[in-house]
């Protein structure tokens, strides 16, 4: 099978297509023939070792010193079950599914095994494979941050960086939770974020949301431009600042900021729980959550897809369409 391998840290040129053996599912696993996968901001960060301030050494320890330890990137995918292990009852060959590998990566391939009890769910029929592949990265991240923030209906939520993968999921999920959503983005994305559920839009080139005079119960920062020092004055009493993108000093200062101001800073990696994928499946099936897709690229155009992510201006997710050989449904594990 074809796989995109990251040979060392660097530009998209460090990526190569290689032929690898097709994996064989264990007794509790499913083998998925991948139809679509995404290139996410996590793939960009790992490939280029572009980490938030303070994470340089920690990053190399976690990801690999000279080159990424996990050489196949890709956090999420959608495809068809090609084979199931002997003990699997939840899925059958031929089922359309989507799945989230998160930090385990390895989705930029034609075939991948997943534990049947893990972060995998049936694909909602109303979503294409390309859309389904883009459900998990932003969706699961924001379900976890909103859970940690105990987001309540009626609260005022501001999303900074509202058109990215995480930001567009934040707008939709906050709205579904009954919040009133203000989106901060470029002016030409106003109609887009309104269609996702934002009731108010701040054009970041024309207006500074911290000077608008409005207070927010929850501020989500996916762009790294809304640290506590900037937002404290517009966080309502008991307010929470969700730093999806945070520097190490900001994370370390969080307990002190809470003690001093009564406002919480919630930061750090989102927990990856299989239950989030089932929640997202239900929302997508009901038509309430539709992941935003920026662009769709052929598998072989992986360098162009990475370059689009590197630019930092994508609207939603960059998807790789995986053509591959047709799997033989029913193939024994
Ligand atoms: N903590 C975690 O567990 C976790 C999980 C996932 C992701 N992350 C981090 O979260 C960040 C966002 O991820 P993502 O996948 O959503 O990224 P993304 O899709 O690449 O975000 C792109 C968006 O960022 C916006 N943007 C760029 N510069 C901006 C600025 N100065 N102010 C406001 N918006 C700006 C752009 O909107 P405009 O159109 O307005 O330019 C663009 O639509 C990444 O740094 C990623 O590493 C953290």
Describe this structure in words.
With 333 residues, the chain is of the alpha/beta class. The chain has two domains: 2-135 and 291-321, Quinone Oxidoreductase, Chain A, domain 1, CATH 3.90.180; 138-267, NAD(P)-binding Rossmann-like Domain (Rossmann fold), CATH 3.40.50. It is built from ten helices and 15 strands. The strands form three sheets. Strands 3, 4, 5, 6, 7, 14 and 15 form a seven-stranded mixed beta sheet that branches. A six-stranded parallel beta sheet has the order 10-9-8-11-12-13. Strand 11, helix 7 (228-231) and strand 12 (235-243) form a beta-alpha-beta unit. Helix 4 crosses helix 5 (165-176). The chain is globular and about 60 Å long. 50% of the residues are buried. The model is unreliable at 326-333 (pLDDT under 50). NADP nicotinamide-adenine-dinucleotide phosphate (NAP) binds next to helix 1, helix 5 and strand 9.
């Amino acid at each position: 099978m074809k796989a995109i391998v990251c040979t060392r840290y660097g530009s998209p040129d460090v990526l190569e297509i290689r032929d690898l053996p097709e994996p064989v599912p264990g007794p509790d696993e499913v083998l998925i023939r991948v139809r679509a996968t995404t290139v996410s901001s996590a793939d960009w960060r790992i490939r280029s070792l572009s980490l938030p301030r303070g994470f340089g050494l920690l990053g190399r320890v976690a990801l690999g010193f000279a080159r990424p330890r996990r050489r196949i990137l890709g956090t999420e995918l959608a495809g068809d079950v090609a084979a199931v292990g002997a003990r699997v009852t939840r899925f059958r060959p031929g089922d359309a599914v989507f799945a989230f590998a998160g930090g385990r990566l390895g989705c930029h391939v034609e075939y991948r095994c997943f534990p049947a009890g893990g972060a995998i769910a049936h694909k909602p029929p109303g979503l294409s494979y390309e859309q389904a592949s883009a459900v998990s990265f932003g969706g699961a991240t924001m379900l976890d941050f909103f859970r940690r923030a105990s987001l309540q209906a009626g609260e005022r939520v501001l999303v900074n960086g509202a058109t990215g993968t995480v930001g567009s999921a934040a707008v939709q999920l906050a709205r579904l939770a009954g919040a009133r959503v203000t989106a901060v983005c470029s002016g030409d994305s106003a109609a887009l974020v309104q269609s996702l559920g934002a009731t108010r839009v701040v054009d970041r080139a024309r207006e500074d949301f911290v000077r608008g005079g409005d207070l927010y119960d929850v501020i989500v920062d996916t762009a790294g431009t809304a640290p506590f020092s900037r937002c404290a004055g517009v966080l309502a009493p008991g307010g929470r600042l969700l730093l999806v993108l945070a520097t190490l000093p900001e994370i370390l200062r969080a307990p002190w900021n809470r003690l001093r101001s009564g406002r919480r800073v919630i930061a750090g990696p989102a927990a990856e729980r299989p239950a989030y994928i089932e929640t997202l499946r239900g929302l997508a099936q009901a038509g309430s959550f539709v992941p935003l897709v920026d662009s769709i690229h052929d598998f072989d155009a992986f360098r162009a897809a990475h370059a689009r992510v590197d630019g930092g201006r994508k609207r939603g997710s960059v998807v790789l369409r995986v053509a591959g050989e047709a799997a033989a449904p029913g193939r024994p594990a």
